[in-house]
Amino acid sequence: MLALVYIEKGKYDDAINALDIALKKVRDEEDKATLLFNKALALFRKGDLDSSYEILKSIPPRTSVMLILGGFWLKCA
Hints:
Helix 3 (about 30-45) runs antiparallel to helix 4. This protein is mainly α. The chain contains 5 helices and no strands. The termini are far apart. About 25% of the residues are buried. The protein is globular and about 30 Å long. The longest helix has 18 residues, at about 30-45.
């Protein structure tokens, strides 16, 4: 995905724009969860921690992304 390349290159605004376009078209909840996670990552690396946190909270429940994040948080607690 192009957005991931942008993130790796440090072009966070380009990544966020690409993800916003993809989010407008996505129908599948799993795909939406992945796109939202990647958007949160771009925002985090950009230094926008509040927006990143809000995006993470908006990830649909019962998706594999949430299961992975939930397991991660349990290990950190």
